[in-house]
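Hi W.,

Here's what went into the run:
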Amino acid sequence: MGDVFKALADPSRRRILELLAGGDLSAGEIAAHFDMAKPSVSHHLAILRHARLITDERQGQSIIYHLNLTVLQELMKWFYDFGLLEGGSRHDKKD
Amino acid sequence: MGDVFKALADPSRRRILELLAGGDLSAGEIAAHFDMAKPSVSHHLAILRHARLITDERQGQSIIYHLNLTVLQELMKWFYDFGLLEGGSRHDKKD
DNA sequence: TTTATATTTAGTTAATCTTCTAAATATATG
DNA sequence: CATATATTTAGAAGATTAACTAAATATAAA
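Here's what came out:
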């Protein structure tokens, strides 16, 4: 779980997730949205993949990246447990 | 907003938030939950305060820390916008 | 098989982060 | 005022991170 938070700490990586929320993209298409060198983007993709925030799949010469909503949902639970919906139905973890 | 994600990237800081979710605590009480030196904890508190995830209030010799749910709620919105609730009512930001 | 395209891996450098100890500040009390 | 307690600030050391260039790998096509 700590890997997920660390992955989200970088603005470029958050931007990658936002791009993928709009649809699957190849590594090259993702890199085209940034000013940095391709190996740097590839490194960010590796960190996101390791945190399981994205999955990849080779298609010919390209590698297509997909957003993995499952991990984001687990993260939502972490926030939810702080009792963010006061007045509503609350979890009991921290009471 | 980037400050918030960076603040959450450290496990000690996330633990501090979880502790404060159980009720307000003084800096000393928070530090007592950790093995590290008090100045280190104080530094983490400063980062959380700068990200506005917590607020502080002096009470005599102690400084009491409170969790600030407002920023956590804004963060929830960021996650929500990825379309995490498929099938349900979705935001339109990324469509 | 040779060449071109797409992407990653390796290795390096500079910046940032976490932690520490020592010193400073603020408040309370004898 | 002097001393004790609570907390922060300052400065430094070591670890981690993000970026780059150059080289390697994998696929496709001539």
